[in-house]
Amino acid sequence: MVIDESTSSTPDGAANRAISMAQTLDYTHPLYLHPSNAPSSLSVGIQLIGMENYTLWSRAMKFALLGRNKLGFVDGSVVKKDFEGELQKQWERCNAIVVEL
């Protein structure tokens, strides 16, 4: 069976653009999302219960975000306006992952 790529079910080749973008973002890029970068996979092991454990929780969260190269979404060094086109959509995906934490 031959699949005709010109009659792809994705509008405007969106799937091809997503694949192309994923291939250009290496693992050091702040917009890179590894398949395991789901909110449920980021476990700091400490639940924030108030000021009494904020310092410990904050440090654990910073290390977890730093390890996934997503700390910039929290400290403001990775902002949406610095990216264009498809990269803005990728920024929104990454930001959603960070917000869900």
Note down, in words, how this protein is organized.
The chain has four helices and no strands. With 101 residues, it is an all-alpha fold. The chain has one domain (5-99). The protein is elongated. Residues 1-10 have low confidence and may be disordered.
Précis, in short:
With 101 residues, the protein is mainly α. Helices cover 43% and strands 0% of the residues.
Helix content: 40-55%
Kindly give the count of domains.
1
Q: Approximately what portion of the residues adopt beta-strand conformation?
A: under 5%
Distance between the termini: 44 Å
Q: Which structural class best describes the helix and strand composition?
A: mainly alpha
Largest sheet: none
Order of helices and strands: HHHH
List the uncertain runs. 1-10
| Computed CA radius of gyration, to the nearest angstrom | 17 Å
The total of helices stands at 4
Global outline: elongated
Mean pLDDT: 81
Total strands: 0
Domain Retrotransposon Copia-like N-terminal: 34-80
InterPro entries: Copia-like_N
Descriptive keywords:
single chain, 101 residues, mainly alpha, 43% helix, disordered N terminus, Copia-like_N
Strand-helix topology:
Elements lengths: L13 H11 L29 H14 L4 H4 L10 H14 L2
